[in-house]
Design a protein that fits this description.
The chain is mostly helical. Helices cover 80% and strands 0% of the residues. The protein has two domains: 3-87; 88-118. Helix 2 packs antiparallel against helix 3 and helix 3 (51-62) crosses helix 4 (67-87).
Length: 118
């Protein structure tokens, strides 16, 4: 998603919230954003999909009212663009996949020592 599309979405969200008085709007944004982030983080350990998108959505909701959340969102977008550019190189993608596989194997070996003998 490009920067213009991000600005249009943010403008539409701010415009939809503009009719609500500022103190109430701030409380609604804090509650909605926090709930999305907490549920997203809880799904890391609980069974369920959509972990990262919920956390990102929570930060996006908070960014409508708070500058720090907007900065976090922009930094996340910048880093994800860098990662996508880096992974366009097939050798970098292979290296990342091998590292993830090795980390998963090491974690499983730590969790279930001796599993390779059974």
């Amino acid at each position: 998603m490009d920067q213009d599309a991000d600005d249009r979405i943010g403008a539409r969200v701010r415009s939809a919230l503009s009719g609500i008085p500022a103190p109430i709007r701030k409380v609604l944004v804090i509650v909605a954003g926090s709930v999305l982030i907490v549920v997203g983080l809880a799904l890391v350990v609980l069974p369920g999909p959509f972990t990262l998108p919920l956390v990102i959505a929570g930060v996006a909701v908070l960014s409508t009212e708070f500058a720090w959340a907007s900065a976090v969102l922009e930094e996340g977008q910048r880093r994800s663009r860098e990662l996508i550019r880096m992974l366009a190189n097939p050798w970098a993608l292979l290296a990342v996949l091998l590292l993830v596989a090795a980390a998963a194997l090491a974690a499983y070996s730590w969790w279930r020592p001796g599993w390779w003998h059974t």
